[in-house]
Design goal:
The chain contains four helices and five strands; from the N terminus they run αβααββαββ. By secondary structure, it is an alpha+beta fold. The N and C termini lie far apart (32 Å).
């Protein structure tokens, strides 16, 4: 799973991952709440410090975008062995990556909107604002779809 995430990311040694966690999310909007809860619980264990709120917000946006734009209209195509959306969290000493895998091959594109009162359309703008970097990569091999990732730099104790 790490190979597709590398393109566009600073070099991150997969062997140096200090913590990793993932969860499958159902193809329904309640999954955003589940993703936030999973992220909060995981970050509590990892002590993500001052980036906690930023990471939770970005996870919410990435999962919402996956559900809104990438999950097929027929959720019956997804089953427990091939979930529609999967959230991955990976922590290195000074970095954390959150990645959302979805079944779509469509490029995530930030909307160009001057209407800041709109109720939708700002997800990737928020991701860009709160993460240190973000990007996406199509999956290879037997996995279908893409991964949209966001990277956060973490302060080290000391």
């Amino acid at each position: 799973m790490l190979k597709p995430l590398r393109q566009g990311l600073p070099p991150l040694d997969p062997a140096a991952v200090s913590d990793a966690a993932s969860c499958a999310l159902p193809a329904r909007y309640e999954a955003v709440r589940e993703a936030r809860r999973f992220t909060r619980d995981t970050l509590d264990k990892w002590d993500a410090g001052d980036r906690f709120d930023d990471i939770c917000l970005v996870v919410s946006e990435l999962v919402t975008n996956a559900l809104r734009h990438a999950v097929p209209a027929d959720p019956c195509r997804a089953d427990e062995h091939h979930p529609s959306v999967r959230l991955h969290l990976m922590r290195w000493t000074e970095r954390l990556v959150c990645a959302v895998r979805d079944p779509s091959h469509e490029t995530p594109v930030p909307r160009d909107s001057d209407d800041f009162s709109a109720e939708s359309g700002r997800g990737l703008f928020l991701v860009d604002s709160f993460a240190d970097s973000w990007g996406w990569h199509p999956l290879a091999g037997t996995l279908e779809g893409k991964v949209v990732w966001a990277l956060f730099r973490l302060k080290t104790a000391g």
